[in-house]
């Protein structure tokens, strides 16, 4: 099983493209992941079964796999079926909605995590939106806590950058689990700030792997 200590203070790159975009292709995702690893990524986060499988064959670093199904509510690896499929596709860590909201299949978060542990060798990353989510996810048996959903569940305002206040709050709880910062980390300085706030590791996606958004930032800045 994966030794999570190898990811301490590391950069994890989220390699995802939105549906309908030119880069939305498993081979392209794998090439982006390879490039990220060359640049120093210690792990990658990948969405979709085909993408997970292709990336697994392309890189040797750990893969955090997820399956987005829908756009609202619980849609990040929303059911046990989705979670086991991600593990089966090659994810070393399965990222799933780790909030206290009702899950579509009616299972509790604890039941889902236990079944992933029993049915695969994968660890579970709980994508949380608040400190209360983090506590509940730790009690449910999660292996990793992430701040992925901070600002998206209605419990906290959406910050311009990473929610450093939430990171510090969860870190102070000393839950005994790696705390991964994710969400709106757009600069190296923000990544460093996330570590300083108590993060175990940092996930960066858009600012590294989404050309359309990055181009838009520059275009907006240069607009008259």
UniProtKB/TrEMBL annotation:
Its annotated pathway reads: Amino-sugar metabolism; N-acetylneuraminate degradation; D-fructose 6-phosphate from N-acetylneuraminate: step 3/5
Reaction(s) this enzyme catalyzes, per UniProt: an N-acyl-D-glucosamine 6-phosphate = an N-acyl-D-mannosamine 6-phosphate
Record keyword Isomerase present: yes
Q: Name one Pfam family in it.
A: NanE
- Sorted UniProt keywords: Carbohydrate metabolism, Isomerase
Q: SUPFAM superfamilies, from UniProt?
A: Ribulose-phoshate binding barrel
Listed transmembrane segments: none
Main function: Converts N-acetylmannosamine-6-phosphate (ManNAc-6-P) to N-acetylglucosamine-6-phosphate (GlcNAc-6-P).
Q: Which family does it belong to?
A: Belongs to the NanE family.
State the name under which the record lists this protein: Putative N-acetylmannosamine-6-phosphate 2-epimerase
């Amino acid at each position: 099983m994966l030794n999570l200590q190898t990811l301490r203070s590391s950069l994890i790159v989220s390699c995802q493209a939105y549906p309908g975009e030119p880069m939305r292709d498993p081979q392209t995702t794998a090439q982006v992941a390879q490039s990220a690893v060359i640049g120093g990524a210690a792990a990658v986060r990948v969405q979709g079964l085909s993408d997970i499988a292709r990336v697994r064959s392309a890189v040797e670093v750990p893969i955090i796999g997820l399956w987005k199904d829908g756009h609202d509510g619980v849609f990040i690896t929303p059911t046990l079926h989705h979670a086991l499929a991600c593990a089966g596709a090659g994810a070393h860590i399965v990222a799933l909605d780790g909030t206290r909201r009702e899950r579509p299949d009616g299972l509790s978060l604890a039941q889902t995590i236990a079944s992933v542990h029993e049915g695969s060798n994968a660890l579970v990353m709980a994508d949380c939106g608040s400190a209360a989510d983090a506590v509940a996810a730790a009690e449910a048996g999660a292996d990793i806590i992430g701040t992925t959903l901070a600002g998206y569940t209605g419990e906290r305002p959406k910050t311009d950058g990473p929610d450093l206040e939430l990171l510090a709050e969860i870190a102070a709880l000393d839950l005994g689990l790696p705390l991964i910062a994710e969400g709106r980390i757009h600069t190296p300085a923000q990544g460093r700030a996330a570590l300083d706030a108590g993060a175990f590791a940092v996930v960066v996606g858009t600012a590294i792997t989404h050309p359309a958004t990055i181009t838009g930032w520059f275009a907006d800045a240069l607009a008259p």
